[in-house]
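Researcher: Here's a chain I'd like modeled. Treat it as a single chain, no partners, no ligands.
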Amino acid sequence: MNPKMIRPIVQALTVLAKIGVQIFVTTHDYFVQQEFLFVAVFLANRSFISLTKQNAMNIINVI
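Model: Modeled as a single isolated chain. Structure tokens:
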């Protein structure tokens, strides 16, 4: 992903989420993750769910 497009894409997905569209995003890009975290914590007051597997236990983290 072009780094200049991270913020506009996150903003567009945030607008869709605010009107009720359920969004699923997967990424390995740290900067994309941080942009979503910034929106969740400081702007949109939204929850993000992280599904991880640790030591053969299924763990769900809500951020």
